[in-house]
């Protein structure tokens, strides 16, 4: 029985693809207005580049982004892609 199992492994292991992706697929980078309540001054000072749809801190770091939170009528979690 053990010999059959070893033979099975020898035959099937070379066909199993266990490689990791060479690069993490990143979501698109979009402009985002990072203010929701009181926003004095020019609008440009609140514009940031973020990874679209990324709100999880760990995922953000995996992408090479910087997790950030801002507050207004709600609590907003974003992933800054470029500063």
What does this structure look like?
This protein is α+β, with helices and mostly antiparallel strands and 83 residues long. The protein is built from two helices and four strands, in the order αββαββ. The protein has helices at residues 2-12, 57-62; strands at residues 29-33, 47-51, 66-71, 75-82. Strands 1-2-4-3 form a four-stranded antiparallel beta sheet. Strand 3 (66-71) and strand 4 (75-82) form a beta hairpin. The longest helix has 11 residues, at 2-12. The chain is elongated and about 75 Å long. It starts with a helix and ends with a strand.
* End-to-end Cα distance: 61 Å
**Structural class estimated from helices and strands:** alpha+beta
| Rounded average pLDDT | 82
Query: Strand fraction band?
Result: 25-35%
**H/E element string?**
HEEHEE
DSSP helical segment count: 2
Largest sheet: 4 strands, antiparallel
Helix percent reads 10-25%
Side by side, the strands of the main sheet go 1-2-4-3
Radius of gyration: 23 Å
What is the 3D form? elongated
Low-confidence stretches: none
Please report the total strand number as a whole number.
4
